[in-house]
Amino acid sequence: MTNKATMIVDKHFVISEVDKRIFGSFIEHLGRAVYGGIYEPNHPTADESGFRQDVLALVRELQVPIVRYPGGNFVSGYDWLDGVGPKEERKKRLELAWRVVEPNLVGTNEFADWAKAAGSEVMMAVNLGTQGIDDARHWLEYCNHPSGTYWSDLRIKHGYREPHRIKTWCLGNEMDGPWQIGHKSAHDYGVLARETAKAMKWVDPSIELVVCGSSNSQMATFPEWEATVLEHTYKEADYISLHTYYSNRENNTPNFLARSLDMDAFIGTVIATCDYIKAKTRSKKTMNLSFDEWNVWYHSHDADKQLDPWQIAPPQLEDIYTHEDALLVGCMLISLLKRADRVKMACLAQLVNVIAPIMTANGGPAWKQTIFYPFLHASLYGRGKALQPIVQSPKYDSKDFSDVPYVESIAVYLEEENEVTVFAVNRHLEDGLLLELDLRSFGAFRVLEHLVLEHDDVKARNTEAQPDNVKPHAGGQSERNETGLTVKLPKASWNVVRLKLES
To answer: Same CATH topology for 4-10+387-501 and 19-360?
Structure first.
């Protein structure tokens, strides 16, 4: 190895305590995310409620702290009343966002049960497309009010005496998008979101609310959308959302692996816009970010075009991920950790079958996609204080990006456990790199493990037939030196170096 990068990791260079909700995910009524994903009553592993226990075990392994539900584009045409009460009385509906039939066998109460079993909180999204203030406040009252009112007593009648106590609510979904049912201008959405927020917080002042930011940074209205929406909602909202997906349709892997730089710029622009409105409105509150949709998404587009409409739970958006996809997901996780001071929630979209780390076969097994592993490692070992990385790395230029560092890295310090974890991606497709870590501020330490996700073929995938084709190993090479550690980063690899402090 001739190429070398350096990184200073100092326990005093703290970005922020990492909010565990940064490792959230998303279940939408879309494709086989719900039906055939988390819920399949006839599956051999299904419990008495119809939930697949093999899927639930994998979700628990990821330790997902919060799950956004029920959409997504789905929510802009959703009547929450369709999904409560006796299942035999529930209506099947044409679902316009994804052109399917929604059977409504899973709704508010069933999903709350599933989330509890998964060890997750629910991030609920209300319909501000075809509905508005009344439906949002009634749904909240149904979920959170103890008893003694029409909506809370209806929940009790449905078999749920204790309130669900759902803390986090999204005010609509991607309302800047012309594809959205009930698409609105920034002004009209901002006014509706503000008035909905006021009513919801009068029902339950303890909740936190997320307003819709831009659907992606390429929208013609970005970032003016954020500025206008926040002018209306800055007092009432607690977070503004960001969504982004990346693809490698051009089959240009160096350019694809650089796309987390676009994510960095997106976050930076939204923060700047928030702070401008903070100054403009003379507010003392700092607006935080909810990056509640992010992932790689492109493999399934052609297959989705071939599907007949008005099916129940067809296989939509079922991307089968590659090793290079896992590397970009790792870079994106590092991007989120680097802005842990402002990004307090994030949702890998989605969790099961639909652009997801977990795949299933109807009636058959569940398995881990390549992207499962960086998400798993970040969720398990990325909690604590994110430390500002001082990195010097060789760089390259690609089609859309210049000065792309081959090494993308960050460290997280879990002080109560005396552990430091370094996450590092080597973007170089042909050469390994040495990463010299300066760790002198921590004193003595030992290496607990060095996990590596690597494969000779960046297009390698995990499938039902080969579920372990791409998986991490614990054979990474890290050696002590005078000031810290020398880490060998194999070509095209995701690395997790866990250290135990001796002092």
So the answer is: no
- How far apart CA 328 and CA 105 sit, in angstroms, is 35
- List the catalytic residues: 174, 293
Dihedral, 80, 81, 83, 85 alpha carbons, nearest 10: 150
CATH number of 4-10+387-501: 2.60.40.1180
Domain ranges within the chain, ordered by starting residue: 4-10+387-501, 19-360
The amino acid at 314: P
- SS3 call for 126: strand
Mapped onto helix, strand or coil, the DSSP state of residue 144 is helix
Question: Look-up: residue for tokens 């350096």?
Answer: 6
Q: How many CB atoms lie within 10 A of CB 490?
A: 19
End-to-end CA gap in the chain: 33
Task: Check if the beta carbon of residue 339 is closer than 8 Å to that of residue 18.
Answer: no
CATH superfamily of 19-360: Glycosidases (3.20.20.80)
Based on DSSP, count helices (H) and strands (E) in the chain, helices before strands: 11, 25
Q: Which helix (H) or strand (E) holds 194?
A: helix 186-203
- Phi, psi of 104, rounded to the nearest 5 degrees: 60, 35
Encode pLDDT of 50-68 as tens digits: 999 999 999 999 999 999 9
Q: Where are the alpha helices (DSSP H) in 204-290?
A: 224-233, 253-257, 260-280
User: H helices of 63-149, where?
Assistant: 108-118, 133-144
Chain segment 326-349, per-residue pLDDT in tens: 999 999 999 999 999 999 999 999
Predicted TM-score of the model (pTM): 0.97
Residue 143: how many CB atoms within 10 A of its CB?
A: 25
Residues contacting 472, CB < 8 A, separation 6+: 373, 377, 451, 452, 453, 494, 496
Q: Summarize pLDDT for 179-221 with one digit per residue, the tens.
A: 999 999 999 999 999 999 999 999 999 999 999 999 999 999 9
pLDDT(2) > 70: no
Name the phi and psi angles at 419, rounded to 5. -125, 145
Please write the tens of the pLDDT for every residue from 115-153: 999 999 999 999 999 999 999 999 999 999 999 999 999
